[in-house]
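SPFH domain-containing protein
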Amino acid sequence: MALFDKIRGEFIDIVEWLDDSRDTLVWRFPRHENEIKMGAQLVVRESQVAVFVNEGQIADAFAPGTYTLETRNLPVLSTLKGWKYGFQSPFKAEVYFVGTRQFADFKWGTQNPVMVRDPEFGPVRLRAFGAYAARVTDAPALLRELAGTDTQFRTEEVEGYLRQLVVGRLAHALGTAGVPLLDLAANQHEMGQRLARALTADLAGVGIAIPTFTIENISLPPEVEQALDKRSQMGIVGDLGDYARFQAANALENAGGAGEGMGLGMGIAAGQHMAAALTPQPQPTHAQPAQPQPTQPQPTQPQPTQPQHPQRQPQEGPPPLPQPGRWFLGVNGEQRGPFAEPDLPAAGLTPDALVWRPGMPQWAPARDVPELITLLGGTPPPLPPRLTTA
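Structure:
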């Protein structure tokens, strides 16, 4: 059987490659001991390049066309060794056919998210996927750098190398694009073209070009997408009161059966809570609990009856508990304080201003509070006779 194959190989005088696959980059022409007859026909079809290798060195590459392998019309063959006629060919050479068409079935995707800094949202993790096409532009370089002596070099053998290069380039492109996150979709085509040019430059040394590069989708983490959806809903609703009613309507629509009332209540509560959280609220004054004061002996003297005046309470309910030794002012219906006693004149203390401190049963005009007489420019009352010195 081996002898028959050897004899049959001697009479084959057409060297060609009919590619019946869709993923073969390089195919080595099978000949017994690499023997090629003098005068054989070399047929190189469109989207192919034939590369002759003699003693491990590339002799020449043939573009598409039909060639008669004779030394007188192919000077390159003069560098190949001659052999005796008969069943031995005049020269020996390895012939590699390299496919130069576009291989457009390459897929890529980011296994790990790419961290980028967005001017509006800050640090964001992005994922992306798409496809690209590759083609051989320098057949000798591909043989030297990647294919070697492989009898059938397929795209799957180079796909992993290309994918790593693509993902590395994509991370740099996304990080330096300077495009806001919400505008990435509008710039995907332009980014794909820039990546195709950059990858072609990177792969020039191995004889491969990337004619097309497609970014099919750029996605965000699920929690970020949910936050953007909420933001979009609020932008559509506009007014917060309308948003509260919108939430209540959603709860009413989605609730059913025994849970209808509960769903309605939860929807209303959620809407009111959201509206209250997003509406600026006046900051209440928090006073510290009153601390017990040491009891000081007070002279016994008749206390003047304080006239009752209609008071204007700044807020409903009992007044808040202030810090010990602190005074509160009521000026034009507005509660101010707490203040230390020396700070009252600067805070707007007048004889008609209402004042209150811990221990007082209610608000009173400043002119009726003995402790504040000196601050109002008056003089204290005389001491009772029983407390005067002899």
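The mean pLDDT is 75.
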